[in-house]
């Protein structure tokens, strides 16, 4: 089975560069051999640093992960009296049970990192029955593929993700402002309970698709590396009248070769199984689809090795979790 994702997906291949910054984008940094991210890469958004102070007793009610599930780039090129439209689309196929299994390890990981920084951890459900919290609509839909309203990072061109939570807990705040969308209720809850509330979001991406000058570039770091560019934590402390958001300011990469196989999807829609993960994965286990250039669909199914995908995702999330805990501790000084 072919694992050469770059050959299957790319018209133009971006060379591997250990650490670089694109114009308008943060630096790409691989995790070190011990699984840590070098330097201080998480910080409060501008003007929000002061609202981090006063954190002692901490509750983490929700940890959510957006797993990128598909990405699409499209270009329109005009010249010589003709207009050419081109597109490239990829779909990641992995059974949802593995994504939930990743999330189910995160409560323990995040809380241990916070405890290591000297914070007193309270049970995640210790605010569940508080009226301020029950009054927040938990409208997030676990497992549903949705258009990406969480930060897309570079080339947020047609990205979709599937959202899951630690412990399969109800969630909200999938937009750009995260849990800050419920600042009034959460700030009152923090002040009345004397507890600091933290809401984590991580986004695991499998590729960055960009389209420039009518050429497609699929940025896959190194040997099919996963990456996290978008991650944040919303913080509400009893000592403040506003919330704060800490954000990752780097594009972290980890692991290698999570791709088990790449297959082109049939051009004719009638020949495809709907792209839910289990159905598509089952349908693609037969003979590879063969296409000529005249029948090229421009859409690819990327079948992930679940063990490698899990391991690489957890490496990235653990590295970011440590950075968040360290940044929160530093803000108390």
Question: What is the first-to-last residue Cα distance?
Answer: 54 Å
Secondary-structure element order, as H and E? HEEEEEEHHEHEEHEEEEEEEEHEH
Query: Would you report the number of β strands?
Result: 18
Poorly predicted spans: 1-24, 152-156, 211-222, 272-294
Summed up, the helix count is 7
Description:
With 333 residues, the protein is an alpha/beta fold. It has one domain (5-331). Helices cover 22% and strands 32% of the residues. The chain is built from 7 helices and 18 strands. Strands 4, 5, 6, 7, 8, 9, 10, 14, 15, 17 and 18 form an 11-stranded mixed sheet that branches. A 4-stranded mixed sheet has the order 2-3-16-13. It has a 3-stranded mixed sheet with strand order 1-12-11. A hairpin with a 2-residue loop joins strand 5 and strand 6 (82-93). It is globular, with a radius of gyration of 21 Å. The model is unreliable at 1-24, 152-156, 211-222 and 272-294 (pLDDT under 50).
List keywords for this structure.
single chain; 18 strands
Structure described in brief:
This protein is of the alpha/beta class and 333 residues long. Helix content is 22%, strand content 32%. Strand 5 and strand 6 (82-93) form a beta hairpin.
What is the strand and helix layout of this fold?
Blueprint: H1 5-9, E1 12-13, E2 20-21, E3 27-30, E4 42-44, E5 57-79, E6 82-93, H2 96-103, H3 106-116, E7 120-121, H4 131-134, E8 145-147, E9 160-165, H5 183-193, E10 196-204, E11 208-212, E12 215-219, E13 226-228, E14 231-236, E15 244-248, E16 251-254, E17 259-264, H6 277-283, E18 299-304, H7 306-331
Parallel strand pairs: 1-12, 3-16, 5-7, 5-10, 6-18
Antiparallel strand pairs: 2-3, 4-15, 5-6, 5-9, 8-9, 10-14, 11-12, 13-16, 14-15, 17-18
